[in-house]
Amino acid sequence: MQIEIDPQSQVPIYQQIRDRTVEAIAAGVLVPGEQLASVRQLALEFGINVQTVSKAYDALRQEGLIRTNHKSGSVIARGPGDVAAAPSFADDWSARLSTLLAEAIVQGVTDAEILARTEQIVQSFAARRSAAPHSPHTESLEIA
Prior knowledge:
It comes from Leifsonia kafniensis. The protein has five helices and four strands, in the order βαααββααβ. It is mainly alpha-helical.
């Protein structure tokens, strides 16, 4: 899996790592049971603090997307459609989506463009899942 982070971004690095991992799961690039790089390995390869990577992995663990074992490390716990979304997730997600859509609207993005871009993104994830091989992938890291 290729993870790209931008140290100049206003988005914290831990959040970028978390977000890219979620996107890779949604796209089928990372599949259940697949091993992630260790916290120390990822921190070393990015040249960042171990606590930054640990914070990203903790967020993914709390969301139930990865599980960690002291012997086997961190692995992907589930993929798209493996489990129905919990009502608490759906409520939180709807609130975050509402804010994101409000940001687009106040910035002048039209309703039609919002709908078109949303559909395009959902279709992109679906197409990538269909095309993704279901075998372990090599880790590739990039700092923008």
